[in-house]
Design goal:
Radius of gyration: 18 Å
Number of strands: 9
Helix content: 40-55%
Oligomer: single chain
Strand order of the largest sheet: 3-2-1-4-5-7-8
Order of helices and strands: EHEHHHEHEHEEHEEHEHH
Structural class: alpha/beta
Strand content: 15-25%
Number of helices: 10
CATH architecture: 3-Layer(aba) Sandwich
Distance between the termini: 37 Å
């Protein structure tokens, strides 16, 4: 990658996130709330990222997701396009976050912390260099649901109380780092998995702002060890056509309304 702006070494936060509209919204939120911060985008072909056959019902599922995100976030991003451009350092390709040239650049900038959202898995060298300074967004509530599509599986399993987002420290395991803060979106009767995903991005953006703000003010952030025996871990291979068929059937049946009539509480890490 190539840094295309001169910045001081006294940077509060470097945001590394993907290039979709929801990730641009996330970046804008952090950059506006944490003044001395910048973003680096990771290029991603979302069709390839999800590692599924994009045809038929599966194609429609993701088309509807991308359309929902466009409707939810486009205007908010358009209003801040010039601002976002002024705080963008550059773009990297998949897995370049672990390459020596990227690590050298980040080490020279030496930000107080790095905020990650939907990027390549970070390997040990960067983890060691920024130990307890790497904050990641997990789209799900850890340790209960870890891995992939972890706000879909609570719907499939009729456990909508486990829909939410987690900010955690980065360690070598999958979504296994100590939990900093969690939250759940406010669901409404006409929500589906796509609108829930948009609400979760908003929620995670707010949670990350709180985390970074607390950290740069030299206040310690929580680091609650996860009991991984409590949860379930899902992989890309688990999200298949049958999953989407079941998801659609449950949404059409009115599972969100059923949940709202009998909401359950679970323990979250919050402050």
């Amino acid at each position: 990658m190539k840094i295309n702006k001169n910045i001081s070494s006294n940077v509060d936060c470097i945001v590394v996130t993907s290039t979709s509209i929801r990730h641009k919204y996330f970046a804008i939120k952090i950059l506006k709330e944490i003044p001395n911060s910048y973003v680096i985008f990771e290029n991603r072909d979302r069709n390839k990222y999800y590692q599924v056959k994009m045809e038929g019902l599966m194609r429609r599922h993701f088309d509807n997701l991308f359309r929902a995100e466009e409707l939810y976030f486009t205007e908010k991003v358009k209003l801040n396009y010039n601002f976002l451009d002024s705080r963008t350092l550059g773009t990297i390709e998949k897995n370049e976050i672990n390459k020596s040239n990227f690590i050298d650049i980040i080490s020279k900038i030496n930000p107080k912390c790095i905020s990650l959202y939907s990027v390549s898995i970070v390997k040990q060298e960067l983890i060691s260099l920024f130990s307890k300074k790497l904050f990641n967004i997990h789209a799900g509530l850890s340790p209960y649901y870890r891995g992939t599509a972890t706000n879909i599986w609570p719907i499939i399993n009729n456990q909508l109380e486990y829909i939410g987002m987690t900010i955690h420290h980065v360690e070598s395991g999958i979504d296994s780092g100590g939990i900093i803060i969690q939250g759940r979106p406010k669901l409404e009767i006409d929500d589906n998995s796509h609108t829930m995903a948009c609400k979760n991005t908003e929620l995670a953006s707010d949670l990350m702002v709180r985390t970074i703000d607390r950290f740069v003010k030299k206040e310690s952030v929580p680091d609650f060890t996860q009991d991984l025996s409590k949860g379930k871990q899902y992989y890309f291979k688990d999200f298949d056509l049958k999953t989407v068929e079941t998801l659609n059937r449950l949404i059409e049946r009115g599972i969100v309304g059923e949940y709202l009539e009998n909401q359950k509480e679970i323990d979250l890490i919050s402050w």
